[in-house]
């Protein structure tokens, strides 16, 4: 499993794990907040049965 967060097309966070179950699932830590701009979060998953899937979610962060 791999998670990739991009801000305006540039990778800002990435995590790869060999397992899709806790404790190996890692969520992104946004404790410092996110800069304004366009983001995409992509997950690439391969199951134990070698099935694969990818999904991407796009969102915008606006200034407060």
Task: List strands and helices in order, with pairings.
Elements (H helix, E strand, L loop, with lengths): L1 E6 L2 E7 L20 E10 L5 E10 L3
Antiparallel strand pairs: 1-2, 1-3, 3-4
Protein architecture, described:
This protein has strands spanning 2-7, 10-16, 37-46, 52-61. The chain is mainly beta. The chain has a 4-stranded antiparallel β-sheet, with no helix packed on it. A hairpin with a 5-residue loop joins β3 (37-46) and β4 (52-61). The N and C termini lie far apart (33 Å). The model has no long low-confidence stretch (mean pLDDT 83).
Q: Portion of residues in helices?
A: under 10%
> Biggest β-sheet: count, sense, barrel?
4 strands, antiparallel
Strand content: over 45%
Structural class, judged by helices and strands?
mainly beta
Mean pLDDT: 83
State the main characteristics.
four-stranded antiparallel beta sheet; mainly beta; single chain; elongated; 64 residues
Please sum up the structure shown.
0% of the residues lie in helices and 52% in strands.
